[in-house]
């Protein structure tokens, strides 16, 4: 489905980041935490990353010093919870900060986030809690700025007077005064707690606290306003103090600039800890602002001072670079509008009531004081509504219009979610295109969460019928985009969009021609999308809930079921040629369509009991398929392959429901089942599904309801169907049904079924012998083929006790030479199954000599015939017409070898039955398999079904060969490399099989893996050399060489992550032996270096390794380089420059890797030496510093992401410096040894040596 995005409006503010409108949204790229220092991660979260605090808990973080630490001061978190259950223990250290003894050094260290201590395994903030900060903490920075605990808990009177003007004196001290950790600071009495204290420690007291604040406002409005603003600042992670008496003179911009400057000056890591702890407070603030607005609706809300000042600060903070400020301010501002709407709706109700009273008084023609009072009240109420709507518009234009395009998707989601609530709650103001367009624009947002939020908002909007007339222009503008979102890359967004389309259809706002592409999603892969589309199809096309001419009949009676089934059959007619697609459609609609569970109605339609309904043959076939599929679903079976193979477990109630469904199906089918079978017994398209229905019935009900005769009739009809048809599906269904009845039925009925099975076997033997005689005299082989198919299906389910049948089958293969390949295939299959059943019947403990001797004879006969056809197919390959027999011979050979492998019978009384093929037979077997693989690659694309069959047969052959290696049936040294050499040659199916084989080999024969890999590379390279010798086509030559390189890439790719170091010896062995092979006849095979070996060289452990194994990888590379260069000594490479070119390429690659590792090691040693000297580190530029150097906020934020690479380089240095001193001493000798090797082997590497020394000189 094409995706056309709607253009977005122009930028409205400098800090906004526009959403791309050229393509569908994709996930935002995020930097890897493993490639950054922990400090950088915190800084990124502060100014450019995502912050998603838990909205569940108000809590605080107490930072307490770890005892017995002088040079370092660690901190452990303590969670303070009020009236909330304690979270899981936070035993691991949440944050580790470095603090020097000198307070001045501490300030400098905190200002430079790179100086924070980093550990290899730093505890991370868990999802279950968010860190808060303790009120017992003081400020960060100079001693003059620090305050005592008593000063931090100053009296409310001091706060009212504004003891400190525009300062940050109450920021938390890094080192608290209390020696106890994890203790809750002393709380004030409930009537003394400020708003922020209530939010922190006792969220249940928010409402009483608001009432006390309102009382305080009535006595001292300015001090109350100061408290309200400070609550906002503290939620942002700061405690900026305002003086109540100078509040009118304080400029909002000055305060906000001071807050932003503080975020720049303070340590990014420390500030992030403080800000993150306060993010939780914001969610409680949303509720407290609702209470405040509600409490103030008769006073401060309309004084144009209190809330105007609050809105000014909220809007200003929402436009600042620090992300925490924007998140807090956005949530508060959006909640204010929501709270205003609550008040406006109440006032609107009052206005309507007053207007009705006024109209009533006017009708009385009474112009007295009552009318005057009502007029005054009406005018006052209208003014309040107008005023509060102006406040809403102010926040919308000042906050929403900028933040709905914020760089943070969480902020964008909050904005769109709130807008959806506003439109639904207050349509008189917001239900107009001026506001609706933002919902339409964000349908193109690059964040899936924002798109989904917009869709859900629109769903709520379209649910209200009164809103639809005002949505006409909006729907016309964005309906195409809504349809496109049904095929969104994110499944949850697509499902939500389909729900939105249902709303549009309900209001008849969507044309039917736009729904065509949606129906293709009925067979889409994600089940959630298929279910959603199925629900839409049912509502729109089957139940026709959205049609203007709805049927008056209910969905409970038979007429409604028949109508619904008729419409369903009309849909299935579109997929009549593909039963698999029909199954998908049935599975999608089944949950919503009750008519599919109306068993009596379906059976009645099949039996033509209603003369008003006439089914065509196609409709009858589809209805039979629907009946069978619906019965499977009703008893808990899956009719569509699941995305996972997990076993499904049912609750007791679900099991009872499934059992009830089984009883219902049995009751409906019991009397009508024989009639259905008789009617469709000769129809091969319907009989298979009908026969299989019996396995979903509860057979014991036949005895309980005295329907034994119907059961016998059904069994007899199934037996007749077995001999009436020759297709695999019908034969397999008949055998499956009879075997089910023989085990699940009871008493006499079970004996009856078993006798019928024996009768079926005897009749089959008679028919088979007659068909064999006809074939011997030269008659048509069709009868023989059909009876062989019947025997094969019977032997798959049970053992055929007739001993003569095996000799008869072998005699046909010996005596008849020109038999059809399909007949030969089924002859061999039946012989293999007979041998397998004979082996199964032998007593392993006390086998009889006669049975063992008989089995040996049959085994040898089977191998003789298989060997004959193995030779025949290799000598006379006639193309595709023999591809089926080739697959059968390869598969039967592999299965027979696995069945009779020697290790299975060794040291047992059946040891003589063990068999292992010789090397020549194994080579012939693989040659035939290879021919089958190449034959599938040559299949034309004209016939899709034929191509699919060829791919399946190719995969079957590869599975059979891989099974021999994985099970240890044959030696791995020959067949293993041959199979793996085809890793990248025959598509994804074969590649997956080979990948699983490699996984098994690494578990069972890990030591042999290097030799197997190298031999596989040699086989692929030899095929390339053969192509090079016999062909002049450059495209074919380059293709074969590319296959060799791709194979090496895939095989070397199995050594990733920790496997590089774990299997380091394997990599070195492959490289070393590969080099030896390349130089066997130099320079003829030197291209093997470039085509195969170089990929493994790149996988050798590099200097990026953390532990000291890195030190050993460098000499290994150097020794390999030395070994390669020695091989070219005393050889005139100028005689054949093109032949030696791969050698020089390989050597250069090795040298680059060695020099790179050596240079990085030198830099690492220099950094260690610098730390050993104990010099204090210089404070680097803080990440996020550029935020405050420019005026354009968008450019400021973008500059951070652009500097990621530079800071990753700094991080590498930082992490290396944390290694203990002993590591530097131990690695010095290794480094010098590496340098010595480099100087001996490199020619004219003066420049390279300089580059190696450069980092050391720079660091010095």
From TrEMBL:
The record's region (Disordered) falls at 1-39, 111-187, 354-373, 1157-1260
The biased composition feature labelled Basic and acidic residues covers: 359-373, 1157-1168
One annotated GO biological process: sister chromatid cohesion
List, as start-end ranges, the regions of compositional bias called Acidic residues.
1190-1219
Alphabetical GO CC annotations of the entry are: chromatin; cohesin complex; nucleus
Which residue stretches does the UniProt record annotate as biased composition, category Polar residues?
A: 16-39
Q: Which residues form the SCD domain?
A: 400-485
According to the lineage, what is the superkingdom? Eukaryota
Q: Which Gene3D superfamilies match?
A: Leucine-rich Repeat Variant
Which residues belong to the signal peptide in this entry? Answer: none
GO molecular function terms attached to this record? chromatin binding
Bias type Low complexity, positions: 1224-1238
Record field: compositional bias (Basic residues): 1169-1185
User: Coiled-coil ranges per the record?
Assistant: none
> What is the name listed in the Swiss-Prot or TrEMBL entry for this protein?
Sister-chromatid cohesion protein 3 isoform X2
Source organism per entry reads Cinnamomum micranthum f. kanehirae
């Amino acid at each position: 489905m094409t995706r056309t995005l709607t253009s977005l409006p122009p930028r409205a503010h400098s800090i906004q980041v526009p959403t791309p409108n050229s393509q569908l949204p994709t996930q935002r790229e995020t930097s890897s935490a493993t490639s950054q220092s922990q400090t950088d991660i915190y800084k990124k979260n502060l100014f450019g990353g995502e912050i998603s605090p838990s909205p569940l808990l108000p809590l605080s973080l107490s930072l307490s010093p770890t005892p017995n630490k002088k040079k370092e001061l660690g901190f452990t978190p303590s969670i303070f919870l009020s009236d909330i259950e304690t979270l899981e223990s936070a035993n691991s250290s949440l944050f580790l900060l470095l603090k020097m003894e000198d307070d001045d050094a501490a300030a400098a260290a905190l200002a430079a986030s790179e100086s924070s201590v980093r550990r290899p395994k730093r505890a991370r903030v868990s999802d279950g809690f968010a860190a808060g900060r303790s009120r017992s903490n003081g400020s960060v920075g100079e001693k003059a700025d620090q305050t005592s605990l008593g000063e931090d808990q100053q009296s409310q009177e001091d706060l009212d007077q504004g003891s400190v003007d525009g300062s940050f004196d109450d920021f938390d001290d890094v080192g608290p005064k209390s020696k106890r950790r994890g203790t809750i600071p002393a709380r004030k009495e409930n009537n003394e707690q400020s708003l922020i204290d209530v939010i922190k420690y006792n969220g249940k007291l928010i409402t009483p606290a608001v009432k006390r604040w309102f009382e305080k406002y009535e006595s001292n409005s300015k001090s109350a306003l100061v408290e309200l603003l400070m609550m906002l600042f503290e939620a942002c992670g700061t405690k900026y103090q305002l003086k109540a008496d100078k509040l009118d003179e304080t400029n909002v911009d000055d305060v906000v600039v001071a807050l932003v400057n503080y975020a720049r000056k303070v340590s990014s890591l420390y500030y992030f800890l403080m800000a993150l702890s306060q993010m939780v407070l914001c969610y409680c603030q949303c509720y407290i602002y609702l209470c405040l607005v509600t409490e103030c609706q008769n006073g401060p809300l309309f004084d144009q001072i209190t809330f105007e000042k609050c809105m000014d600060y909220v809007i200003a903070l929402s436009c600042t670079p620090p992300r925490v400020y924007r998140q807090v301010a956005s949530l508060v501002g959006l909640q204010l509008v929501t709270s205003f709407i609550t008040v406006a709706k109440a006032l609107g109700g009052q206005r309507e009531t007053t207007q009705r009273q006024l109209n009533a008084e006017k009708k009385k023609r009474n112009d007295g004081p009552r009318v005057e009072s009502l007029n005054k009240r009406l005018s006052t109420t209208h003014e309040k509504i107008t005023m509060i709507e102006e406040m809403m518009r102010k926040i919308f234009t000042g906050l929403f219009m900028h933040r709905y395009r914020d760089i943070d998707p969480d902020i964008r989601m909050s904005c769109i979610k709130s807008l959806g609530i506003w439109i639904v709650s207050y349509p008189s103001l917001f239900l107009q295109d001026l506001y609706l367009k933002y919902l339409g624009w964000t349908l193109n947002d690059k964040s899936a969460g924002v798109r989904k939020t917009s869709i859900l908002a629109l769903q709520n909007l379209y649910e209200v019928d009164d809103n639809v007339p005002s949505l006409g222009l909006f729907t016309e503008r964005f309906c195409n985009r809504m349809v496109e979102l049904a095929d969104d890359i994110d499944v949850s967004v697509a499902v939500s969009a389909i729900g939105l389309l249902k709303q549009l259809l309900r209001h008849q706002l969507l044309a039917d021609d736009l729904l065509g592409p949606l129906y293709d999603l009925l067979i889409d892969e994600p089940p959630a999308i298929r279910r959603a589309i199925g629900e839409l199809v049912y509502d729109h096309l089957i139940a026709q809930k959205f049609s203007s001419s709805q049927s008056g009949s209910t969905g409970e009676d038979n007429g409604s079921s028949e109508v619904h089934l008729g419409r369903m059959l009309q849909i299935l007619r579109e997929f009549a040629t593909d039963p698999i697609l029909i199954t998908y459609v049935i599975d999608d609609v089944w949950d919503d369509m009750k008519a599919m569970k109306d068993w009596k109605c379906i059976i009645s339609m099949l039996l033509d009991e209603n003369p008003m309904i006439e089914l065509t043959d196609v409709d009858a076939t589809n209805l039979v398929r629907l009946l069978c599929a619906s019965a499977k679903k009703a008893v808990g079976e899956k009719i569509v392959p699941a995305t996972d193979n997990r076993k499904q477990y049912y609750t007791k109630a679900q099991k009872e429901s499934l059992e009830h469904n089984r009883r219902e199906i049995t009751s409906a089918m019991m009397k009508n089942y024989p009639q259905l079978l008789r009617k469709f017994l000769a129809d091969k398209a319907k009989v298979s599904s009908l026969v299989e229905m019996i396995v979903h019935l509860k057979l014991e009900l036949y005895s309980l309801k005295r329907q034994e005769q119907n059961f016998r009739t059904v069994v007899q009809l199934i037996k007749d169907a077995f001999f009436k048809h020759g297709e695999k599906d019908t034969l397999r269904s008949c055998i499956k049904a009879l075997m089910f009845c023989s085990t699940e039925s009871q008493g006499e009925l079970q004996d009856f079924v078993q006798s019928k099975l024996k009768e079926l076997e005897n009749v089959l033997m008679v028919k088979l012998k007659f068909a064999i005689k006809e074939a011997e005299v030269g008659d048509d082989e069709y009868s023989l083929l059909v009876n062989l198919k019947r025997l094969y299906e019977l032997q798959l389910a049970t053992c055929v006790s007739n001993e003569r049948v095996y000799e008869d089958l072998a005699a046909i293969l010996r005596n008849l030479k020109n038999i059809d390949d399909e007949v030969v295939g089924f002859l061999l299959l039946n012989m293999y199954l007979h041998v397998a059943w004979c082996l199964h019947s032998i007593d392993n403990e006390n086998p009889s000599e006669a049975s063992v001797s008989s089995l040996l004879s049959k085994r040898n006969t089977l191998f003789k015939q298989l060997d004959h056809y193995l030779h025949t197919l290799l000598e006379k390959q006639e193309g595709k017409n023999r591809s089926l027999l080739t697959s059968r011979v390869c598969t039967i050979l592999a299965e027979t070898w696995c069945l009779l492998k020697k290790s299975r019978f060794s040291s047992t009384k059946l040891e003589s039955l063990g068999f292992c093929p010789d090397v020549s037979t194994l080579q012939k077997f693989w040659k035939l398999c290879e021919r089958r693989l190449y034959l599938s690659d040559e299949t034309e694309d004209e016939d899709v079904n034929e191509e699919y069959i060829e791919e399946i047969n190719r995969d079957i052959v590869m599975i059979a060969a891989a099974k021999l290696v994985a099970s240890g049936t044959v030696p791995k040294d020959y067949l293993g490399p041959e199979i793996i050499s085809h890793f990248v040659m025959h598509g994804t199916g074969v590649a997956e099989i080979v990948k699983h084989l490699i996984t098994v080999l690494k578990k069972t024969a890990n030591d042999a893996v290097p030799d197997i890999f190298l031999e596989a590379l040699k086989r692929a390279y030899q095929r390339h050399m053969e192509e090079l010798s016999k062909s002049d086509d450059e495209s074919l030559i380059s293709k074969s060489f590319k296959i060799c390189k791709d194979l090496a890439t895939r095989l070397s790719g199995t050594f990733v992550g920790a496997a590089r170091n774990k299997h380091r010896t394997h990599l070195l062995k492959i490289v070393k032996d590969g080099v030896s092979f390349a130089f066997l006849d130099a320079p003829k095979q030197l291209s093997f270096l470039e085509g195969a070996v170089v990929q493994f060289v790149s996988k050798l452990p590099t200097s990026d390794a953390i532990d000291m194994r890195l030190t050993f990888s460098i000499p290994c590379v150097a020794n390999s380089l030395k070994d390669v260069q020695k091989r070219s000594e005393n050889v005139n490479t100028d005689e054949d420059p093109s032949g030696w070119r791969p050698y020089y390429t390989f050597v250069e690659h090795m040298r680059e890797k060695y020099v790179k590792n050596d240079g990085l090691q030198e830099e690492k040693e220099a950094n260690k030496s610098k730390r050993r000297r104990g010099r204090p580190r210089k404070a680097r530029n803080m990440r996020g510093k550029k935020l405050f150097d420019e005026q354009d906020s968008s450019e400021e934020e973008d500059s951070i992401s652009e500097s990621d690479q530079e800071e990753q380089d700094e991080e590498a240095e930082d992490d290396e410096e944390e290694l203990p001193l002993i590591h530097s001493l131990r690695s010095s000798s290794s480094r010098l040894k590496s340098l010595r090797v480099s100087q001996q082997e490199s020619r004219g590497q003066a420049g390279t040596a300089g580059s190696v020394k450069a980092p050391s000189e720079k660091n010095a």
